[in-house]
Design a protein that fits this description.
Length: 227
């Protein structure tokens, strides 16, 4: 850009600099932050694993198989149920879901030790005399009765469906304990029927987990009993 300036000595043409053009390009828009990865739900593995073992045990308790086939549920419990619950426990722990990991860990321990008890007594793995077999089963039931009673109390801050389910597990253990110590077929069958109620609740929780995992709405689980 030029400009003519009159001066006593004559006209002088002077270059006048034009407006400055920025040499740096305009920075690109900041890229949007990536969406956080969805949090996993160990229930999609743990719940069906629990359900299949509970169904098998309930059928044994109500007399679907003869008494001589009382160990018919063990193949399912020892493999599918125990392995699935162990996977769910590790998964929940990795996610930092301590309460969930504790629940699945307790159930995994119960099913694994139940399989060990039935197989051990049936094959005399632990050198327990035949006359002491009933007492050994009572010991097993009392020990787990305490754990699930504590789990019920500790779960009162969870949605209501969970402590109710844990309380029903306590009822089942008490009924099996009565049926074992008496012995009483009626108590064992009643335990099986109560276990079917637990199975229905577990199925509801599994449908809830699958619904949320596939982008659906969560099902109502009830307010916490203790806030």
């Amino acid at each position: 850009m030029s400009q003519t300036i009159d001066s006593p000595a004559g006209s002088v043409t002077q270059e006048v600099p034009g407006p400055r053009v920025p040499t740096e390009s305009v920075p690109e828009a900041v890229a949007a932050a990536p969406e956080p990865a969805p949090v996993g739900d160990p229930g999609v593995i743990g719940l069906p694993a629990f359900l299949v073992g509970a169904i098998a045990l309930a059928l044994v308790l109500v007399g679907f198989v003869p008494p001589a086939a009382g160990a018919a549920s063990i193949p399912i419990i020892m493999s599918a149920t125990s392995v699935g619950l162990l996977i769910a426990t590790i998964w929940a722990a990795r996610l930092g879901q301590n309460a969930v990991a504790g629940v699945y860990g307790a159930f995994a321990g119960f099913w694994l030790s139940y399989a060990a008890l039935v197989l051990g007594l049936g094959h005399n793995w632990f050198a327990i005399a035949t006359g002491a077999a009933a007492r050994s089963q009572e010991l097993f039931l009392i020990a787990w009765l305490v754990i699930f009673a504590l789990l019920t109390l500790g779960g009162l801050r969870l949605p209501a469906v969970y402590p109710v389910l844990f309380a029903l597990v306590v009822v089942v253990i008490v009924l099996v304990l009565v049926g074992t110590s008496a012995p009483s077929v009626a108590a064992l069958k009643t335990a099986g029927y109560v276990l079917f109620v637990i199975i229905a609740m577990g199925a509801y929780l599994f449908v809830n987990s699958m619904s949320t995992a596939t982008g659906g709405r969560a099902l109502p689980l009830g307010p916490p009993i203790l806030k």
